[in-house]
Write a sequence for this structure.
Protein backbone atom coordinates (compact mmCIF):
# COMPACT_ATOMS: atom_id res chain seq x y z
CA UNK A 1 0.00 0.00 0.00
CA UNK A 2 0.88 3.65 -0.26
CA UNK A 3 3.34 4.91 2.32
CA UNK A 4 3.57 8.29 3.97
CA UNK A 5 6.63 8.92 6.07
CA UNK A 6 7.18 11.60 8.67
CA UNK A 7 10.50 12.84 9.95
CA UNK A 8 11.53 13.15 12.65
CA UNK A 9 9.50 10.60 14.58
CA UNK A 10 10.19 12.51 17.75
CA UNK A 11 11.97 15.71 18.58
CA UNK A 12 12.76 17.68 21.69
CA UNK A 13 13.44 21.37 21.32
CA UNK A 14 14.01 24.32 23.59
CA UNK A 15 11.33 26.89 24.14
CA UNK A 16 11.65 29.74 21.65
CA UNK A 17 13.29 27.72 18.92
CA UNK A 18 11.71 26.51 15.68
CA UNK A 19 11.35 22.95 14.57
CA UNK A 20 10.49 21.49 11.16
CA UNK A 21 8.56 18.29 10.56
CA UNK A 22 8.55 16.66 7.14
CA UNK A 23 5.78 14.63 5.54
CA UNK A 24 6.71 12.61 2.47
CA UNK A 25 4.62 10.43 0.21
CA UNK A 26 7.10 7.72 -0.72
CA UNK A 27 5.44 5.96 -3.64
CA UNK A 28 2.81 8.34 -4.91
CA UNK A 29 2.31 11.99 -5.69
CA UNK A 30 0.07 14.03 -3.47
CA UNK A 31 -1.35 17.35 -4.52
CA UNK A 32 -3.01 17.70 -1.15
CA UNK A 33 -1.69 16.92 2.30
CA UNK A 34 -3.29 17.56 5.66
CA UNK A 35 -1.73 18.36 9.00
CA UNK A 36 -3.29 17.32 12.29
CA UNK A 37 -2.29 17.60 15.91
CA UNK A 38 -3.30 15.26 18.66
CA UNK A 39 -2.98 15.85 22.38
CA UNK A 40 -2.72 12.83 24.70
CA UNK A 41 -5.92 10.84 24.96
CA UNK A 42 -7.69 13.12 22.51
CA UNK A 43 -8.76 12.92 18.90
CA UNK A 44 -7.03 14.42 15.88
CA UNK A 45 -7.64 18.09 15.21
CA UNK A 46 -7.18 19.32 11.67
CA UNK A 47 -4.75 22.23 11.52
CA UNK A 48 -4.41 22.98 7.85
CA UNK A 49 -4.70 21.75 4.29
CA UNK A 50 -1.47 21.88 2.33
CA UNK A 51 -1.75 22.31 -1.42
CA UNK A 52 1.21 21.79 -3.72
CA UNK A 53 2.37 25.03 -5.22
CA UNK A 54 -0.01 27.27 -3.31
CA UNK A 55 -0.62 28.62 0.16
CA UNK A 56 -1.94 26.36 2.86
CA UNK A 57 -5.48 26.74 4.12
CA UNK A 58 -5.64 26.98 7.89
CA UNK A 59 -8.50 25.93 10.14
CA UNK A 60 -10.10 28.46 12.41
CA UNK A 61 -8.01 29.16 15.48
CA UNK A 62 -4.73 27.92 13.99
CA UNK A 63 -2.07 30.63 13.76
CA UNK A 64 -0.60 30.55 10.29
CA UNK A 65 2.43 32.57 11.32
CA UNK A 66 3.23 30.09 14.05
CA UNK A 67 2.63 26.93 12.06
CA UNK A 68 4.30 27.48 8.71
CA UNK A 69 3.39 24.99 6.02
CA UNK A 70 5.25 24.54 2.78
CA UNK A 71 4.23 22.09 0.06
CA UNK A 72 6.96 22.66 -2.46
CA UNK A 73 6.73 19.38 -4.32
CA UNK A 74 4.22 16.65 -5.04
CA UNK A 75 5.82 14.38 -2.47
CA UNK A 76 6.80 16.69 0.37
CA UNK A 77 5.04 18.98 2.79
CA UNK A 78 6.72 20.54 5.80
CA UNK A 79 5.30 21.95 9.00
CA UNK A 80 7.50 24.39 10.90
CA UNK A 81 6.53 25.25 14.45
CA UNK A 82 8.04 28.66 15.03
CA UNK A 83 9.02 30.01 18.43
CA UNK A 84 7.82 26.82 20.03
CA UNK A 85 6.44 26.83 23.55
CA UNK A 86 5.65 23.95 25.90
CA UNK A 87 1.97 24.15 25.01
CA UNK A 88 2.93 23.27 21.42
CA UNK A 89 4.08 19.87 22.62
CA UNK A 90 1.88 17.38 20.83
CA UNK A 91 1.70 14.52 18.36
CA UNK A 92 1.65 15.94 14.83
CA UNK A 93 0.30 13.74 12.05
CA UNK A 94 0.11 14.34 8.33
CA UNK A 95 -1.98 12.63 5.70
CA UNK A 96 -1.82 12.68 1.94
CA UNK A 97 -4.34 12.19 -0.81
CA UNK A 98 -2.96 10.65 -4.01
CA UNK A 99 -3.04 12.91 -7.05
CA UNK A 100 -4.69 10.04 -8.91
CA UNK A 101 -7.82 10.56 -6.83
CA UNK A 102 -10.01 8.23 -4.80
CA UNK A 103 -11.36 8.37 -1.28
CA UNK A 104 -8.35 6.92 0.48
CA UNK A 105 -6.17 9.19 2.54
CA UNK A 106 -2.85 7.81 3.75
CA UNK A 107 -1.52 8.79 7.15
CA UNK A 108 2.03 9.16 8.33
CA UNK A 109 3.31 7.57 11.49
CA UNK A 110 3.23 10.86 13.37
CA UNK A 111 5.86 13.03 14.98
CA UNK A 112 6.13 13.64 18.69
CA UNK A 113 7.19 17.16 19.59
CA UNK A 114 8.24 18.01 23.11
CA UNK A 115 9.13 21.61 23.89
CA UNK A 116 11.11 22.09 27.08
CA UNK B 1 -16.66 22.92 17.69
CA UNK B 2 -16.57 19.16 17.26
CA UNK B 3 -18.69 18.21 14.29
CA UNK B 4 -18.61 14.51 14.99
CA UNK B 5 -19.52 13.15 18.39
CA UNK B 6 -18.68 9.57 19.22
CA UNK B 7 -20.21 7.45 21.93
CA UNK B 8 -19.27 5.92 24.16
CA UNK B 9 -16.04 7.73 24.95
CA UNK B 10 -14.62 4.73 26.78
CA UNK B 11 -15.56 1.09 26.69
CA UNK B 12 -14.07 -1.80 28.60
CA UNK B 13 -15.48 -5.22 27.82
CA UNK B 14 -14.65 -8.88 28.17
CA UNK B 15 -13.32 -10.94 25.29
CA UNK B 16 -16.17 -12.44 23.28
CA UNK B 17 -18.66 -9.67 23.90
CA UNK B 18 -20.24 -7.56 21.18
CA UNK B 19 -20.16 -3.78 21.06
CA UNK B 20 -21.33 -0.85 18.99
CA UNK B 21 -19.69 2.53 18.63
CA UNK B 22 -21.70 5.46 17.34
CA UNK B 23 -20.61 8.50 15.37
CA UNK B 24 -23.19 11.30 15.18
CA UNK B 25 -23.36 14.70 13.58
CA UNK B 26 -25.85 17.30 12.49
CA UNK B 27 -23.88 17.76 9.27
CA UNK B 28 -24.17 15.74 6.09
CA UNK B 29 -20.98 14.06 4.92
CA UNK B 30 -20.08 13.03 1.40
CA UNK B 31 -17.90 10.28 2.81
CA UNK B 32 -17.13 8.87 6.20
CA UNK B 33 -14.23 6.79 7.33
CA UNK B 34 -13.41 4.71 10.39
CA UNK B 35 -9.90 4.38 11.75
CA UNK B 36 -8.18 2.55 14.56
CA UNK B 37 -5.19 4.08 16.24
CA UNK B 38 -2.62 2.48 18.51
CA UNK B 39 -0.76 4.65 21.04
CA UNK B 40 2.06 6.65 19.45
CA UNK B 41 1.14 5.68 15.91
CA UNK B 42 -0.82 7.17 13.07
CA UNK B 43 -4.42 6.07 12.51
CA UNK B 44 -5.05 3.08 10.26
CA UNK B 45 -7.99 3.17 7.88
CA UNK B 46 -10.60 0.47 8.41
CA UNK B 47 -13.32 1.45 5.96
CA UNK B 48 -14.77 4.23 3.82
CA UNK B 49 -18.52 4.61 3.28
CA UNK B 50 -20.03 7.02 0.81
CA UNK B 51 -23.64 5.97 0.19
CA UNK B 52 -26.49 6.59 2.64
CA UNK B 53 -27.60 3.30 4.17
CA UNK B 54 -24.44 1.54 3.09
CA UNK B 55 -23.28 -1.43 5.16
CA UNK B 56 -19.77 -2.79 4.93
CA UNK B 57 -18.30 -5.78 6.70
CA UNK B 58 -14.67 -6.39 7.53
CA UNK B 59 -14.38 -9.78 9.24
CA UNK B 60 -15.95 -9.21 12.68
CA UNK B 61 -16.49 -5.50 12.09
CA UNK B 62 -19.70 -4.14 10.54
CA UNK B 63 -19.93 -0.51 9.51
CA UNK B 64 -23.11 1.32 8.64
CA UNK B 65 -23.61 4.77 7.17
CA UNK B 66 -26.89 6.43 8.10
CA UNK B 67 -29.51 6.98 5.43
CA UNK B 68 -29.12 10.74 5.73
CA UNK B 69 -25.30 10.48 5.77
CA UNK B 70 -25.12 12.25 9.10
CA UNK B 71 -24.20 9.33 11.31
CA UNK B 72 -22.47 5.99 11.31
CA UNK B 73 -21.94 3.00 13.52
CA UNK B 74 -19.28 0.39 14.02
CA UNK B 75 -20.30 -2.97 15.43
CA UNK B 76 -17.72 -5.50 16.59
CA UNK B 77 -18.78 -9.08 17.10
CA UNK B 78 -16.97 -11.33 19.56
CA UNK B 79 -14.37 -8.74 20.52
CA UNK B 80 -10.80 -9.85 21.01
CA UNK B 81 -7.94 -8.25 22.97
CA UNK B 82 -6.36 -7.34 19.63
CA UNK B 83 -9.30 -5.02 18.98
CA UNK B 84 -8.12 -2.76 21.79
CA UNK B 85 -7.39 0.75 20.57
CA UNK B 86 -8.75 4.18 19.82
CA UNK B 87 -11.52 4.11 17.21
CA UNK B 88 -12.06 7.27 15.25
CA UNK B 89 -14.66 8.23 12.71
CA UNK B 90 -13.84 10.97 10.24
CA UNK B 91 -16.13 12.74 7.82
CA UNK B 92 -15.58 14.86 4.76
CA UNK B 93 -18.18 17.28 3.43
CA UNK B 94 -19.08 18.64 0.06
CA UNK B 95 -17.01 16.24 -1.98
CA UNK B 96 -13.79 17.45 -0.40
CA UNK B 97 -11.24 15.16 1.15
CA UNK B 98 -10.72 17.31 4.20
CA UNK B 99 -11.58 14.83 6.91
CA UNK B 100 -12.67 16.05 10.32
CA UNK B 101 -12.25 13.52 13.08
CA UNK B 102 -14.73 12.48 15.71
CA UNK B 103 -14.13 12.69 19.43
CA UNK B 104 -12.90 9.09 19.56
CA UNK B 105 -13.84 5.92 21.41
CA UNK B 106 -11.23 4.20 23.48
CA UNK B 107 -11.88 0.45 23.56
CA UNK B 108 -10.24 -2.04 25.87
CA UNK B 109 -10.96 -5.72 25.48
CA UNK B 110 -9.99 -7.82 28.45
CA UNK B 111 -8.83 -11.40 28.02
Amino acid sequence: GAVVSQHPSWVICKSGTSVKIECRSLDFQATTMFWYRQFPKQSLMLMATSNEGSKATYEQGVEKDKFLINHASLTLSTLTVTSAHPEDSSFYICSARPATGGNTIYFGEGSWLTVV
Amino acid sequence: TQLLEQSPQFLSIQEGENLTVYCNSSSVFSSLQWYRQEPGEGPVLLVTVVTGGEVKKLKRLTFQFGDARKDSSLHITAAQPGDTGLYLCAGARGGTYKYIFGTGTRLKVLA
About this structure: The mean pLDDT of chain B is 94.
